[in-house]
C-alpha cells in the first residue's frame, strides 16, 4: 500500500493534560464553598459524584470544541493509503 496523503487530526494523547486541567477546574469551582466535613466517608462519596460530573462536562465541552474548532488544538498528520492492485492477475 502506498501513502496517498495525510489528514490533520487532533492529537488525542496531547489533549490529556487539557482534559485533566478542565476537570480539576470544574471540581474546584463546584466545591469551593463546601464546608469542612467531620465524616470523611460522606464527603468522599459527594466528591466522587462531583468528579464524575466534572469529567462528563469537560468531555462534552472538549468534544464540541474539537469538533467545531479543531485547529485550536494540537494535531498530527495521519496517513491515508492507496490500495495496490496486487489481487488482480497480471
- What is the gyration radius calculated from CA atoms? 22 Å
Q: Tell me the strand order in the biggest sheet.
A: 1-2
Overall pLDDT: 83
Q: How many helices in DSSP terms?
A: 2
Q: In this structure, how is the largest beta sheet organized?
A: 2 strands, antiparallel
Shape: elongated
Order of SSEs: EHHE
Q: How many DSSP E strands?
A: 2
> Which band does the percent of strand residues land in?
15-25%
User: How many domains comprise the coordinates?
Assistant: 1
Outline the low-pLDDT stretches: none
Instruction: Work out the helicity level.
Output: 40-55%
How far apart are the termini? 17 Å
**Structural class by SSE content:** alpha+beta
Structure in words:
This protein is α+β, with helices and mostly antiparallel strands and 90 residues long. It has one domain. The protein is 50% helix and 19% strand. The protein has 2 helices and 2 strands; from the N terminus they run βααβ. It has helices spanning 16-31, 40-68, and strands spanning 2-10, 75-82. A two-stranded antiparallel sheet has the order 1-2. Helix 1 packs across helix 2 (40-68). 3% of the residues are buried. The mean pLDDT is 83.
List keywords for this structure.
90 residues; alpha+beta; two-stranded antiparallel ribbon; 2 helices; 50% helix; elongated
Task: Compose a concise summary of this entry.
This protein has 2 helices and 2 strands. With 90 residues, the chain is α+β, with helices and mostly antiparallel strands.
Sequence-ordered SSE layout with sheet pairings:
Blueprint: E1 2-10, H1 16-31, H2 40-68, E2 75-82
Antiparallel strand pairs: 1-2
Helix pairs in contact: 1-2
Amino acid at each position: 500500500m502506498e501513502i496517498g496523503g495525510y489528514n490533520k487530526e487532533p492529537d488525542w494523547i496531547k489533549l490529556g493534560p487539557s482534559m485533566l486541567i478542565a476537570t480539576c477546574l470544574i471540581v474546584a469551582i463546584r466545591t469551593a464553598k463546601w464546608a469542612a466535613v467531620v465524616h470523611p466517608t460522606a464527603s468522599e462519596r459527594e466528591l466522587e459524584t462531583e468528579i464524575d460530573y466534572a469529567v462528563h462536562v469537560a468531555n462534552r465541552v472538549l468534544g464540541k470544541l474539537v469538533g467545531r474548532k479543531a485547529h485550536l488544538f494540537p494535531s498530527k498528520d495521519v496517513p491515508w493509503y492507496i490500495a495496490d492492485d496486487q489481487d488482480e492477475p497480471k
